[in-house]
Amino acid sequence: MNNCIKVVPIALRCQQRTISTSSVLEGKRNFRKFNAYNKRGTRVVKEAQKTLANPPVAIHKRGVRDTGILVDGQYVEIPEKIPDIIVPDLTGCKLKPYVSYKAPDVVQSEFTSLDLFNAVYSQKIIEDFKAGKLQKDGSAKEPSVNEQLTPEEALQRARKTGSDIF
Amino acid sequence: MSSALIKCLNLAKTVGNATVRSFLAAPKQPWQSCSAAALQTPHVQMPMQMHTSAVRRDLMEFFDDKKNWSENEVKVGRAWRTEELRIKSNKELHQLWFVLLKERNMLLTMEHECNDKMEVFPSPERIDKVKISMENLETVVRERNKAYHLLETGETGERPQKAVKNAFGLQVSYKACEHALPPFMNLKWIKSRNIGYGGRAVNRFLLKYREKLYNAKRKAKNRSRNEVMMILRRNPNFDLDVLRRQFPDVNVDKLRNEDKIRGHYVPKVGV
């Protein structure tokens, strides 16, 4: 019995389970495998990100555009680069994101340049024709603001900042 | 030089601030749409006005109505169709765009939160409906933009497209975009572009690719011909005009003279 009592600790120690792992890899050694964005990485990496003109990892801006530039390490804000989001007044807006299934069907063809011409120009041309205010080539003697618009001005007006580009 | 540039930029910033202040001090006027087609309608150029939605100091607009949180299904209507959007004015389209944008943000926020909390996100098809509505709205805006450009300048106003060949020798459509530098000064682009494609591997790939396309076409033609053959074999008195209209690729007259359309029966001779 005494022999058994003496052997018990050895037996228990033999029955214990152990695990083993590989050596821990510090960040400094295998830097390329880590995604070290703006605030991640070691202290040295963060310092380099902050100070270098071309940091080792590009600054992750999450899709947001800059509103200024760096001049000799000094950030200068440019007013033209600040986006001007034009939001309509939605108070009293009756439009909803979905359309009821009971809504009546609408039949409407595509809006063409002929429709735009009829909406803007044709009324004045008819009136000028009746009043005899047209020249021989068909242009008006007293052109309106829209008739004085040249193609270049129209293109400039349409291509202002914020317009859609398809 | 750099200090002078900094002074110029700071001066520009000051002018910008003054402009914004003058904008805010301007009397309130109804907001005018910036769409290209709407620029034609007002006869006087309105000054730029700014508007914002009502101020709410919390983020609960990003979440759905509280009574919908534990529901399994939220009943909503369908997406906006193109015909319905065409009868709306530019102002209404602008408002609708932001209504849909808020709805999309709310739906994405709820989806993300439901995933975090291991809950069921009710009616996920709402995201698709909002996406379809936004696509249709952009289609209508594009139509009006094209109409304006065609009327005033004679061109569609859209980006010019060019057919170029990619690295595999396949033809793709390239849409031109604006660049700050002219091509001969753009060193990065000059270094990165590869002029032409080539190599034996590309040629072999193109041969196999064209063979694949040709095989698909050949099999489709054979399938059509076999279908006509079986129709005529089972129904000798089938209307040939219908067959010609339905299968334009198949030579029906030539097929009638062949033995392939003869069925497994003895032709009836005049008794």
From TrEMBL, chain B:
It is found in: Mitochondrion. GO terms for biological process: mitochondrial translation. GO terms for molecular function: structural constituent of ribosome. InterPro entries: MRP-L47_sf (IPR038340), Ribosomal_uL29_mit (IPR010729). Its main location: mitochondrion. It comes from the Eukaryota. Signal peptide: none annotated. Keywords: Mitochondrion, Ribonucleoprotein, Ribosomal protein. The keyword Coiled coil does not apply. Belongs to the universal ribosomal protein uL29 family. This is Large ribosomal subunit protein uL29m. It comes from Drosophila melanogaster. The gene is mRpL47.
